[in-house]
Design a protein that fits this description.
alpha/beta, Rossmann fold, two-stranded antiparallel sheet, 11 helices, 12% strand, globular, binds magnesium ion
Length: 286
């Protein structure tokens, strides 16, 4: 694929390399991380008014990763964009570091401890309310899993937010069709999701969560209502042998397995952007 988004597709390829490397250090939720790589890359590279220098500033946008088990993808993005020293990713699960299976506020760029599902949106709702009251001109973004929509706290927050049309709040649903090791629709069907969320007072838009032109459409034209972007994605996206598989949720890899998957990734998504020298040693040491 060659288009105006090449730089972001290259970024995503490098982020997936980071995730595979972390999977060799005790394993991680590779499938869940891979489904939201493009979403996170777009948010941090193109959407959020946030830089490594503005962490902690009141004049920043806020991002909450509610599906905390996908944090290897977030760490990869943060490392690539200068928020986090990529060498720290080698310390995944090291007791001496905070690079763990779920987000930790000790990591630069992480706003919120998450992992227990259903908490990110309620917290973000409160932050968005504060931003609106203080007229900060900033926005709050949340990424949740689709299985997370089976948490009652999510629907409480959706119900409340829909009552307040000027909340600067955007929810992204990573609609990869799985929760843990079952499909969402076989466990507790969510569809028709756009209709449900619209009926709660949200401005709902559905996009392909792996195409940047689509993500751009999802985040553009924000209305006066809270926006929900339903991003259709594929669990394990980027490596066909692990895509859309219920059993590739959590993955622990031996180095040779990670190397084989990385070769598969590079065959599927050859990019014009070479691995940055600063991270090459880290993410290719698999
Ligand atoms: Mg899911």
């Amino acid at each position: 694929m060659s288009d105006a988004w090449d730089d972001l597709y290259g970024l995503c390829r490098r982020v997936r390399c980071h995730v595979l490397a972390m999977a060799t250090h005790g394993g991680c939720f590779v499938g869940s991380a891979f489904s939201c790589v493009e979403i996170l890359a777009y948010l941090y590279a193109r959407q959020l008014r946030l830089t490594p220098e503005s962490i902690g500033s009141e004049d920043r946008d806020y991002f909450f990763l509610s599906k905390g088990h996908a944090v290897p993808a977030l760490y990869g993005v943060l490392a690539e964009l200068g928020y986090l020293d990529p060498v720290r990713l080698e310390h995944h699960l090291d007791p001496e570091d905070d690079i763990y299976w779920h987000p930790n506020r000790g990591i630069p760029g992480v706003e919120f401890h998450s992992g227990s599902l259903g908490h990110g949106l309620p917290v973000a709702l409160g932050v968005a309310w504060d931003l609106a009251l203080r007229e900060r001109g900033r926005r709050c973004y949340v990424l949740c899993g689709d299985g997370e929509l089976n948490e009652g706290s999510m629907w409480e927050a959706l119900l409340v937010a829909g009552r307040f049309p000027e909340l600067p709040l955007t929810l992204v649903v990573d609609r990869n069709g799985f929760q843990a090791n079952v499909s969402t629709e076989s466990l507790n069907p969510l569809e028709p999701l756009v209709d449900k969320l619209t009926s709660f007072g949200w401005d709902a838009v559905r996009v392909d969560g792996h195409r940047f032109s689509e993500l751009s459409r999802g985040f553009s034209g924000q209305t006066q209502r809270p926006r929900v972007v339903i991003a259709d994605t594929v669990r394990g996206k980027g490596i066909p042998s692990i895509e859309a598989r219920a059993d590739r949720w959590f993955v622990s890899l031996r180095p040779e397995e990670a190397a084989a998957l990385q070769q598969e990734l590079e065959r599927e998504s050859p990019g014009p952007v070479a691995l940055a020298s600063a991270v090459q040693e880290v993410c290719c040491r698999v």
